[in-house]
Amino acid sequence: MPKIKFTKTELKNQQDNKKQFERFLPTLQLKKQQLQNEVRLSQDALEANLEAQKQLEKELAVCIAFFGDEEISGVVSSNVVIKRVITGTANIAGINIPTFDHVEFEPEQIDLMATDWYVDDAVAALKSAASLREAYKVLQVQYDLLSAELRTTSQRVNLFEKVKIPECKENIRKIGIFLGDMNTSAVARCKIAKQKAEERAS
Asked: Do the Cβ atoms of 22 and 95 come closer than 8 Å?
């Protein structure tokens, strides 16, 4: 705990600091609650994405038998090429986080007359799988950012609740006692001085 001055000015400073901490604390507590909720939602979104990926893998299992042909496999994979991932931003509890929009793929080069019917389905399914994977990456960044902000906010709440406000209260108490003792001592000195002055005058 830093040293304090036992003065009226310091007493006012400590009282002002306490009021300021107590004024900001509810806002920080509200932000903490909001972030806790957002982190839970983010975790749910990650789990839902993984579940969707697993479900798609099961659906793709029906087509896997066709991928044994290297020529067909090459046609499918060559037509699932990510051009770019489109993302946006959102502001949650005062922080900017990325949001997933969609994936743009390179144009398909499929000869409809020369390929089997299931190639289109396989390409579409693999594009969905790629989109889910890219979405997961963005969701993970969201989760990491929100979790980091939650940790920082929780630390600030703890700092105010458990350190700063109690510290100010203790400093106010100590300064109050000191100033009270000084005042009592000054009154006592005045009385003694007055008594001696009266004794000399008589």
From this structure: no
| Closest CA relative to residue 39, chosen from 157, 152, 158, 150 | 150
Q: How many CA atoms lie within 13 A of 138 on its CB side?
A: 20
Q: 134-173 pLDDT, tens per residue? A: 999 999 999 999 999 999 999 999 999 999 999 999 999 9
By the 8 A CB rule, do 76 and 126 touch? yes
Q: Kind and range of the H or E element at 165?
A: helix 165-201
Cβ atoms 46, 101 nearer than 8 A: no
In order of 39, 88, 128, 134, 196, the CA distances from 131 in angstroms are 22, 15, 5, 5, 95
Q: What pLDDT, in 10s, does the model give residues 82-92?
A: 899 999 999 98
pTM reported for the whole predicted model: 0.79
Asked if residue 31 lies in contact with residue 100, where contact means CB atoms within 8 angstroms, the answer is: no
Tokens of 5: 């001055």
Distance CA 144, CA 16 (A): 36
Domains of the chain as residue ranges with CATH = 8-192 (1.10.287.3240)
